[in-house]
Amino acid sequence: MALIESRFDSQVLDLSLGANIILPEHPNAWNEPPAVLYLLHGLSDDHTIWSRRTSIERYARDYNLVIVMPDAYKSFYCDMKHGSNYLAFMADELPMLIKRWLNVSSNPKNTFVAGLSMGGYGAVKLALGRPGQYAAAASLSGALDIASHINDDWNESRLRTFEAVFGSLNHVPNSSNDLIAQIKGLDTIPETKFYACCGTEDYLYQDSVAFRGTAAAKGLHLTYEESAGEHEWGFWDNYIQRVLEWLPIERLETDSAT
Questions:
Q1: What InterPro entries does the database record attribute to this sequence (predicted)?
Q2: Strands 65-70 vs 35-40: parallel, antiparallel or unpaired
Q3: Residues 169, 146: Cα–Cα separation, whole Å
Q4: CATH number, domain with residue 95
Q5: What pLDDT does residue 254 have?
Q6: Cys-Cys with 19: which of 64, 70, 98, 171 at CB 3.0–4.6 Å?
Q7: pLDDT tens digit string along 91-107?
Q8: Edge-to-edge, what's the strand order for the sheet holding 35-40?
Q9: Model's pTM, two decimal places?
Q10: Is 252 inside a domain boundary?
Q11: Looking at the domain assignment, is residue 255 inside a domain?
């Protein structure tokens, strides 16, 4: 495998930021350019966290897949109310840069997005907002029902984050940042395949339950899994393997133990 630790300038964000990129182990074994998975971090982390806390590089070695792990700070992958336009960066500028730098597939059927916690929210938000751009979107323990947390007892730091992103949590219900409301309001069911998982002891478990119910009622293509587990890396290290297996990409039959 090759792991690229990159820094680059974003015109949309007007800053320099990082992204870790995993390249395929067997580039000559395939007859077409690799698919792309944008793998998103959570609120307290950055672009290095998936590589540091899981074995994602080893798990991905037998897939024809480039994995892009960008830094998105505490943006919730939104165009922030008081901050930068991370949604525009993620949906428009970053894919353009990746296609310019790497020989990756430009076909939407080979473009995927996934993330944990805040990144799970971002993955679903991107897929709902750009239904023709991503063939599959996966949420691991995602913050998928932010509007339900308005009255939670948040600390001052977290409230400042919400104010920077949304203006206020009170502005989320029925807005473009309310994923449950966005699904309910869909006029056309997207072809995008969705995946969601969560631990039953996770503090965001009810978010995934609400997402599952709303998606089922609307007819979204959703695969849902849950098991005992909390909001922690042991759970995510296990389930990112299931996400890779779920994605519509080929896998080489090799010995992945080494």
A1: AB_hydrolase_fold, Esterase-like, Mycobacterial_A85_antigen
A2: parallel
A3: 8
A4: 3.40.50.1820
A5: 67
A6: 70
A7: 999 999 999 999 999 99
A8: 2-10, 15-23, 65-70, 35-40, 111-116, 136-140, 193-199, 221-227
A9: 0.96
A10: no
A11: no
